[in-house]
Write a structure and sequence with these properties.
Blueprint (H helix, E strand, L loop, with lengths): L1 H7 L6 H7 L3 H7 L7 H22 L5 H12 L1 H11 L9 H5 L6 H30 L17 H9 L7 E9 L6 E8 L2 E8 L2 H15 L5
Antiparallel strand pairs: 1-2, 2-3
Amino acid sequence: MESLETKLNYKFNNIELLKNALVHSSYANEVRGNTHSNERLEFLGDSVLSIIVADHIYHKYPNMPEGELTRLRASLVCEKSLCALSRELGIGEYLLLGRGEDKNGGRERDSILADAFEAVLAAIYLDGGMDAAKTHIMNTVLRDLKHHGNDDTFKDYKTTLQEIIQRNPEESVTYILVDEFGPDHDKHFTVAVKLNSNVIGQGSGKSKKQAEQMAARQALKLMGESV
């Protein structure tokens, strides 16, 4: 267990919580007795993961519409993402599986690994509280979002717009600063995006980059693109 704690970068006060998180139902059914599967922990971990991720992206991307927040959260907590993180942490090698499940490749099964990730998260939450769970999620599930600043939208509307415009070589897109106001510590910018000489979108934000993204987003909407 110590090697897994090292990989998790978390030291348990109650190691039994971690042990329970690694018990698959196939093993619990074989052993019976007082051995319980990790299914209840998985249930709790799913909820803890959802609220922490939702809270983080809600505050990190203040201009992101609800639909995009939903899609972003779904991409972060989907089975594919969680099983990849589980493999990275090596959780599979610590799982207790029934003989049949183990023989049939259960340690590499996406659903089992993703569920185990959530169960381990719940174990960390029960052992160390919400702060410990959040630290674990920031270092795993939300790790890649650290490369996206608070003033950026996660989706790159400018690139999408540019790719569409480039289909017609004679067309060109430019971004023009329309307005700038507020004190230095709380600036707001408004930017217009032009297709040749015609304004096709306008957006605002706390940085020129964010305002350009919002202008591109409006242009895409007016062009009938799904954003």
